[in-house]
């Protein structure tokens, strides 16, 4: 986790596997959010960059949108969240949290 390149390669590979990442269970969304929250205090820039895996969430079906939105809201509610990750998450949620 302290090596941004290694972390990015593992977590980035998860996000790049669209079939796995966007599984209907939403487990990968939760896993990604968990790791972004853990990484943020150590490397806010990498966490913000990797959060872009959620960027296209409005394009997915309503069920997946709901699951992704829940994780984005969980990320933004994290105490002590860096400005980098907060800005990315707020942008993805849209002004006022609605898209």
Question: Keywords for this structure?
Answer:
99 residues; mainly alpha
Characterise the protein shown here.
This protein has six helices and no strands. It starts with a helix and ends in a 6-residue tail after the last helix. Helix 3 packs parallel to helix 5 and helix 4 runs parallel beside helix 6. The protein has one domain. It is mainly alpha-helical and 99 residues long. The mean pLDDT is 89.
Number of helices: 6
* N- to C-terminal distance: 32 Å
Inertia-based shape: globular
Number of domains: 1
Helix content bin: 55-70%
Helix-strand topology string: HHHHHH
- Largest sheet, described in full? none
For the residues shown, what is the average pLDDT? 89
Radius of gyration, CA atoms, in whole angstroms: 12 Å
Please identify the structural class as seen in this structure.
Answer: mainly alpha
- Secondary structure: number of strands: 0
Spans of at least 5 consecutive residues whose pLDDT stays below 50 are none
Strand content: under 5%
The oligomeric state of the chains shown is single chain
